[in-house]
TrEMBL record:
Entry protein name: Sodium:sulfate symporter transmembrane region
Keywords: Membrane, Transmembrane, Transmembrane helix
GO cellular component annotations of the record: plasma membrane
Pfam families registered for this protein in UniProt: Na_sulph_symp (PF00939)
Membrane topology: Multi-pass membrane protein
One GO MF term: transmembrane transporter activity
Localization annotation: Membrane
Residue ranges of the TM segments: 41-72, 79-102, 122-141, 148-167, 173-195, 216-241, 261-279, 286-308, 314-334, 355-378, 398-421, 433-456
Amino acid sequence: MTKLPVNRSQWLALALITLLSAALLFSPVAGWFEGPQRLSALLVMAGLVLFATGAIPEFVSALLVLTLAMLLSLAPAEVVFSGLTSTACWLIVSGLVIGIAISETGLAQRVSDLFTRHLDTSYTRLIAGIVVIGILLGFVMPSSVGRIVLFIPIALTIAHSCGFEPGSNGQKAVGLAAAFGSHLPTFAILPANVPNMIMIGSAEKIHGWSPMFGEYLLLHFPVLGILKAILLVVVLVRLYPDNPKPVPQAGSSRPFNFTESRLMVILLVTLGFWLTDTWHQISAAWIGLAAATLLLMPGVGMISTQSFNQKVNISSILVVAGLLGIAGLINHQNISGILGGHLLGWLPLEPGRDFANFLTLSLTATATGMVTTLAGIPATLTPLAGLMSEMTGFSLEAVLMTQVLGFSTIIFTYQSVPLMMAMPLAGIPMRHAARLCLILAALTIVILFPLDYLWWKWLGWI
């Protein structure tokens, strides 16, 4: 008799799907959904479990979700396959092409040499240095996408210069440090991420208030920036232990050649357009796609067809399409609206219970991001801020600022387009990002949320 080869993650996924399905079908929650909404909720839940556990390859999970959504007629094709037409998909394609160019021309090695000699003395220093560089980029580049596209190839070259082979613990840790360091702590910097700007815009439009840069930085950066970065470094060093073995680099002082100079011009022009997108209103995806197309043009670019075919992995695009398809299905079936309508009345909010109210608001924002993605948190919660202010006794400004704790705490990778884009660029399976998200989210809720409450209390916000 043949024994089925079922591994531990697959058993875990099967158990979680069974338990959550039973809860969704036989608990009071079952009455919230009808017909296609219930099937959609089941499919969304099963898909998220498969992505989170890595029970089957991520691109197979993506195809499974997309196929079942179509076979069960849960949403039109333009919703289910919206990921393939989204800016996120084309940001990944353009990011992969730009990354190939930065690596193959030697530009990544040149920049890497500037940093490696200062970072390769210890493993912890290396990972911490990568995270710090990502945070510093957040002060000068107001786009996680731009930071990740430019920094990931350089970080991987630094990993190679430290003797880390592809697929090694060190290589994974450096790639994850560059991706998460460029993204998570920078939510504490006002213009550095899209959800920040959506929150500011909606708060100003609805409530007539928006925070100042220094005010926002003082409130959030000490805990959600510095302490979260420290947690990130500690977790990466523990999850992916390794030791740098520096590889001698020759010719680091050679002058720029024509190919490198041409690439620098293209990158600087691209970066200029990214930094001024509020003026010209051209999406970062189409700016990146223009740069990628130029880099692929015969006689102009510097990437061969062979390199493109070998290094642009279609499975990564399918993964993003599946995750964004889940987000589209959630919105199409109004799952987030149903959950929000039922749960708001259940929130244990009461004036005078400051710590409980703070945690409830922060966890509500975090949970909202699971069903709306990060950008949906301010869009969903900002209109409710006035009511929440009355229920808690907090100022309107304090209630609005608790959203930052929510969209800086990522539980599933599909919530964040920059993280989904970063994993293919770094060549790291999505399950590693999923595991890191879950661990960091748990540590953030248990450690950083209470510390943030004390910090807010000391500053007089509560």
